[in-house]
Amino acid sequence: MKSQFFNNVPRNVTILAIAVTIVLGMFRLIPLLILVWIVALSYIIAYQYRGGSKNKRSSFVCLDCATIHQANSCPKCGSKLKKFYSSTNSYGV
Q1: pLDDT in tens, 79-89
Q2: What's the pTM value of the predicted model, to 2 decimals?
Q3: Confidence grade of residue 39 (pLDDT, cut at 50, 70, 90)
Q4: What span, in angstroms and rounded, lies between the C-alpha atoms of 26 and 89?
Q5: Contact at 8 Å (CB) between 36 and 17?
Q6: DSSP string spanning the chain?
Q7: CA 84 to CA 18: how far, in whole Å?
């Protein structure tokens, strides 16, 4: 659970950007403040894009028979009850 807290890169970048915004806001360095948010948002977008390219197809797990598949309905039992599957266990099953 503790490693999952530190592995959330977009949230950590946002928290860091807020902290830097507070410091720069105290000194009224508005151009640098805008630059910090542009860099933070660019980094988050690049991180999401890079992470999304690894798993081009989403996997699901059937809630009836626990089969991992990519189809709309389970190929084993035909059920449409499914949950998003992640092999890293960071979300989903």
Answers
A1: 887 777 666 65
A2: 0.53
A3: very high
A4: 41
A5: yes
A6: -HHHHHT-HHHHHHHHHHHHHHHHHHTT-HHHHHHHHHHHHHHHHHHHHHHHTT--S-EEEETTT--EESSSS-TTT----EEEE-TT-SS--
A7: 32
Burial class of 63 by CB neighbour count within 10 A (0 to 12, 13 to 18, 19+)? middle
Residue at token pair 């508005």: 30
Q: Which long-range contacts (CB under 8 A, 24 or more apart) does 22-31 make?
A: none
Closest Cα to residue 84, out of 23, 47, 70?
Answer: 70
Tokens of 65: 């028979």
Structure-token pair, residue 83 = 């949950």
Q: Which residue has the tokens 């970048």?
A: 13
- Rounded Cα distance between 46 and 91, Å, is 21
